[in-house]
Write a structure and sequence with these properties.
The protein is α/β, with parallel strands linked by helices. It contains eight helices and seven strands, in the order E-H-E-H-E-H-E-H-E-H-E-H-H-H-E. A seven-stranded parallel sheet has the order 3-2-1-4-5-6-7, with helices on both faces. Helix 1 links the parallel strand 1 and strand 2. The longest helix is centred in the middle third of the chain and has 29 residues. The chain is globular and about 50 Å long.
């Protein structure tokens, strides 16, 4: 399956220490890529070692740290970058009328501003190379609003539109920019939903696949978008949701 072979390719995955990000980083390593993962604590080194990657501590909420971390990662990868996966994200939950502006700012900084900043940094490298793959992680909340998560919904709506905007300018210059929109995933970010028996049952009942997703469910779509298999796919937002949106 040479279309999906990433031997000799290089990649950066933000949020690669756990959950969906870790699953996607594992997929890239297994496909032959040399991978650097970003994490917020020293635990990133142990997580990276477990999957055969290299770990860097990078505070994505800090503009200077993002730039420095990106430059260090590209250096570790030999000066080339073939794939960027923006998988890091944070969540805050409050009723809309009570949502603190500080929490709003925190979520938008990590989930949207950092994504744009890293896309821009990666884009400069990839455009000079004449080739590259950027995969952003959107959400079902890119399509609808959810409850008690206005900042997250706004950030993921922004990620979807940002993906299209970047694609409009870069597709003709060899850089594919696409996004995956995960459905309801059994990850740490959704602990509150998973623990709410009523809401959990309501969500599961609407999923035609009759289950929540996990990191392994992201691997195939990720490899498609990271490989030559998707060379004519640009500006796409691909739901990986067990059929939820179709219901």
């Amino acid at each position: 399956m040479t279309l999906f072979d990433l031997s000799g390719k290089t990649a950066i995955v933000t949020g690669g220490t756990r959950g969906l990000g870790r699953g996607m980083a594992e997929a890239l390593v297994d496909a032959g890529a040399k991978v650097v993962i970003f994490g917020t604590s020293e635990s990133v080194h142990a997580a990276a070692k477990e999957i055969g990657a290299t770990g860097l501590v990078v505070d994505l909420a800090d503009a200077k740290a993002r730039e420095t971390g990106f430059a260090e990662a590209v250096k570790l990868l030999g000066g080339r970058l073939d794939v960027l996966v923006n998988a890091a994200g944070i969540q805050r939950r409050h009723k809309c009328e009570d949502f603190p502006l500080d929490d709003w700012a925190d979520v938008l900084e990590v989930n949207l501003t950092a994504v744009f900043a890293l896309c821009q940094l990666a884009g400069r490298v990839m455009l000079e190379q004449g080739k590259g793959k950027i995969i952003n992680i959107a959400s079902l909340l890119s399509f609808f609003g959810g409850f008690t998560v206005p900042a997250y919904a706004a950030s993921k709506g922004g990620v979807m539109q940002l993906t299209k905007a970047l694609s409009n300018e870069w597709a003709g210059r060899g850089v594919n920019v696409n996004a995956i929109a995960p459905g309801y995933m059994a990850t740490d970010m959704n602990t509150a939903l998973l623990a709410d028996a009523g809401r959990n049952a309501e969500i599961t009942a609407r999923i035609p696949a009759h289950r929540w997703g996990n990191g392994d469910d992201m691997k195939g779509p990720l490899l498609f978008l990271a490989s030559a298999a998707s060379d004519y796919v640009d500006g796409a937002i691909i739901p990986v949701d067990g059929g939820y949106l179709g219901r």
